[in-house]
Structures are given as structure tokens and as C-alpha cells.
Amino acid sequence: MNRSLLPALGLAALPLLAILALGFVPLMVVVVWSFWSWDPVTYWIRPDMSLAAYVAILDAGRWTVILSTLAKALVTALLCLLIGWPTAYAVHFLAGRRLSLVLLALMTIPFFTSYLIRSFSWRLVLGRTGVINTLLIEAGLIAKPLDWLLFSDFAVVIGLVASYLPFATFPLILSMRRVDPVTMQAARDLGAGFWTMLRTVLVPLTFPGLFAGFLFVFVMVAGSSTEVQMLGGAGASIVTVMINDVMRVANYPLAFAISTVVLVVIFGLVLAGNARFGLARLFGEGGA
Amino acid sequence: MAISIQIETVTRAFGPVRAVDDVSLEIRAGEFFTLLGSSGCGKSTLLKLIGGFDAPTGGRIAFDGRDMAGIPANRRPVNTVFQSLGLFPHMTVAENVGYGLRLKGLRGAALSARIDSALEMVELGGFGPRDVNLLSGGQRQRVALARALVMEPGILLLDEPLTGLDERLRQQMRDEFGRLHKRTGATFILVTHNQDEALSLSDRMAVMHRGRLEQIDAPARFFEAPANAFVARFVGIDTLLTHQGVIREGDATHALIAGEKVPVRIGGPAEPAESVVALRPDRLLLHPHSEIELKNALALRLKVVETRYRGLHHDVTLAFADGQRVVVSLEADQPVPAPGDLVSVGLKPGGAMLISNAGLPAAA
Hints:
The structure holds 2 protein chains of 2 kinds.
Chain A: H1 5-33, E1 37-39, E2 44-46, H2 52-59, H3 62-94, H4 97-108, H5 115-126, H6 131-138, H7 153-177, H8 181-189, H9 194-205, H10 207-222, H11 226-231, H12 239-248, H13 252-277
Antiparallel strand pairs in A: 1-2
Helix pairs in contact in A: 2-13, 3-4, 3-7, 3-10, 5-7, 7-10, 8-9, 10-13, 12-13
Chain B: E1 5-14, E2 17-27, E3 32-36, H1 43-51, E4 58-63, E5 66-67, E6 78-81, H2 93-103, H3 108-121, H4 137-149, E7 155-159, H5 167-184, E8 187-192, H6 195-201, E9 204-209, E10 212-217, H7 221-224, H8 229-234, E11 239-241, E12 246-249, E13 252-257, E14 260-266, E15 275-279, E16 284-287, H9 291-295, E17 299-309, E18 313-319, E19 325-331, E20 342-347, E21 352-356
């Protein structure tokens, strides 16, 4: 280590300390406590080195909730990319400067209301007497209301996509801004039609944005609860809700074990994605 | 393989602005043609129209007589070397060069053979597996050239391809273009604002200004007979003098400038209505303190305003009696006249031309 690193270290000391104290330490506590044991009779936790909490995930069928959470996160993230990519394309390549600003502003409007209100509003749309059922009945397309619209996984995914779509769109816009439009012209020049150009040039060049958007949505869904509670069917659960339930009986080891599993999955995802797509390229040099 | 281009009364309007304004032009098959003009004159827009990246708002563009209206860029027998190259950053050199051929369905050994020979042609043999992002500016330029030439296009468009390269590389790549033009036999169209490039490469060239073609000719003709004041200035004939009248004596024509009778040649087919006299600096000969030359009919009597040392020569600024100026160069070893001296300037044939004053700012 040379001398000039010292002032830099001084400058970085505070944020480094904050990251360690506020981020890393609680996470370590979570991981460590997940190996402690919990007595259901006394609700007491003992420092221990047992896998009891992890076993409890398996035997009470809680793993299905974890799996269904990851599945919801996966489906929501993919849907968000599917909708967000063309949206980003339209905002960046098709709209003029003013229109694209307006579109960006419109995308942030949902953030002005709380998740609770936003999720609730979907009840009014998807419910038995909601907008969609009413319209379909009046149009004579269906005789009685569709039940599966609300209080179902379908409703949950709709609510999740609506909530987290901007988290996919914004990184995609960012990644498209980094694409030199002349590369697209060059592809056309060399004989590529529009779709071939997308497949061979624009989509590969927006991989960092696709991955970042995927990750953001995935993580947000894995930590969400409102949408499931407001729009899910009876008994529908998600990791956050389950953790909440377990915490009520002070079973911290189990709650932390569930958290640890989710944490490991997401962390693995980040590492794998970064190795493949180079997330840093979205912000730094080397992409262009 | 080379393709001829017919451009008939083509206009490209952006709202009220006509970037390309009623341009008609025939480019012969296999010709090296240059569109020369300053930035914003519409030359790049015209190139886009030929390439199919933009559609004209009026007029017609045809290749070998076949109308190209409605045929998109990807189905035209044209390839482009873009100003900013547009190399694919997620592909290697070979993948970049092979991109177009892959789309045509070429694979395997046939594909790599074509890629290799294209890379050889631009002297990048063995560079195939390299990352395009790690190449130097000149190498990237060559990759872009190879990527276009490997398609064996009937027409190659070069959009300011040398901008942004340093002077040495510029000259090197310029010579390269000439070599590749001979080798491929394709029609080359170069867009540039650099007259050196235009003059040294082109079979014919056009000077473009405000969306219009001011003159279409072989390079030498721009000096022998510039179409108007704008063209003359653009190719470096800076001395444009207003005159008080034109006198015809038999075959000879003289323009009257501040009392001097200057023999002029009429550049165009007819004498322009509103004309100026353009003096070619290379056909003016300064005779310091030479009494004999003063009697010569082909000499002008001018007063020295100032002299400036320029290394290999002196620039001597001379003034007519009415104050109009002309700069003549004088060999460095010649005695330098002092400001205020009267000197005579010999005029070689074709040194003064009577040309239209179109394109001259009103104040000048």
C-alpha cells in the first residue's frame, strides 16, 4: 500500500463504516441467528449451532411459499422486461425529446401513491363487479363474472407488474442511451431487417439493462407483501408475509433462516448475472 | 458490379428547411465521386437518401435506372462507412466483418475465407479474433471499411470517414481509399468538407451549398472555371474583386478594376450578369522594382500594403487604387518590397476569371 492511499482511505472510512455497521452487521446477525434454536413452549431462543430452523422450513411446507415467491418474482421480472423493453425503445428511440420527458414523468406517477392504495385500486378493476367484468358482461362476451380475475395468482402478478414495472424500464432506458445509434444503422446497411437488427444488435447491447431491470424487479418482488395481501386468494402467501407470521411467535431463528435462503438465492443471482452480463457496464465505461 | 446512380430533382425538406434542394446528378458506374461542402450544406443528407436511411420528399433516385423509392437500406446494393463507424462493440473484428455475410446465410469455411480476405485487403490480416473496442482509431476505420467491402457492394458510401483521424493516418487512409477503389471497381461516393481529400481522390466532384449543387465537374475544372464566387472561395481562390465594367476588344475581354484593365477569361459558357473577377494566386507573378514589366499589358500596377514571412515564401499584400486587395506570394530569397512601393504583377494566362458573384456575402 502506498502513501497516496491513506487520504483516500480517510475519505472512504465513514461510508465504509456505515456500510459495515448498517448493512453488513445486521445481515451477519440474521445469518448467525438462523442457526440458533427456538423452544416453542417457552418462545425462548438459545445460542446454538443447529439446523433446526432450516429443517422447520422443510417440514411445515414453508418451502412451497419460498418457491412460489421465487416463481412470482421470476414471472413478474420477465413480464416487466417484456413490457419495459419496448417501452424503453419507444421512449428513447421513437419519442422526441419533449414527449420522452412526458412519458418518463408519467411512469413515475404511480410512485406518488402508496403501494396499499395502488394495490387496492386493482380490486376495483379486477373484482366481480369491477371494471373488467362489468365491461365484458355488458359486451355480452361472458354471462357471469370471471372469478379468477381477483384473489388469485393472476391478480397478484398483475399487481406486482404494475407496481414494479418502472424498476425494469428505467435501467433499460439507461442502457439504450449507451447504444450508439449508428450501430443500428450499420446493421440495416449490412442487410439486417428491423427484427434481425433488434435480435443481433440492440438486444445484446442492452443486456446489462435487461439484467439490472430483472434483478431490481426480482428483489422488489421477493421483499413485497402488499400485493399478495390485497390481491391474493385465501391462503396466498409470500416470503415477507410468512416471515411476519413467524416473527409474531418470536421464532427468530426460523424467520432468519427463511431470510437467509432468499438472501443466498438473490446473491447467487447477482454474482451469476454480473459474471455473464457485466452489470457495471450499465454505468461505467467499457460498454460502448 | 459497379452501379450508376441517377438523382433526379431530389428534394429533402425538414419542415420549411430544404436540406437537399432540387438536386439532379448522374453518377457513373465505377466512378469516384465526391460531395464537397461545409457542415450543414446537406451533403450527408444526400448520402442518407442514396443509402436508403431517409426518403426524399420530392424527386427520384435510381440505381442503374431502377427506381429505389420504397426500398429500405437493408435491401439496397449499397454499403456505408459511417462517420462514427458504428462498429458492433459486442462482437470481435471477424464477427463485425462477417455480420452481413452471415445474414446472407454464409457459414463455416466459406464465411471465414471471405472475412480473412477482406481483412487482408485492409491490411488487418490475423486481427479476426480481436476485440474491436481495443483497436486504434486507424484499425477501427479499417474494420469498418472491411465490413462494408466484404459485401462487394455496387456502391460504397463514405461519410466523412477521415474526420477524427490524425493527419498522418488521414493521408494513409486516403491513399487506401484510392487503392481500394481501383481494386474493387465499385462506385465510390465520398462526403467530405476537406478539399484535399476531394481533389486527390475524385474522378468528379460536386461542391454543395445550402442544399444545392453549385458545380459538378472534374477537380481541375474547379480551378479553371469555378462556377461562381462561392465555389471559387471554397476551393481556395480567395481573391475576388469587384470591377467597374467589362470591355470587349475582339476576342479579348478586359475587366476594369480601379483604372487597371485586367485581361479576364470568362469561366462559364456566357458572361455572367453579375460578375466578379477571381484571381488565381498560382498565376500571379510579382516583379519587385521592375520598370520594364510596368509596360507589359498583362501586368497590373499595385501598391504594397504589407509583407509577411511564411517560411518558404513571403505573402505580399497588394492593393489596387480603390483599396481592393490581393495577396501574392514571393519566393523567400527574393528581395522583399517595402510597404508603399509600387510593384508590377504579371498575370499568366487564365490567371483572372470573370465569374458569377453568386454565393458572395452582400457586404464583401
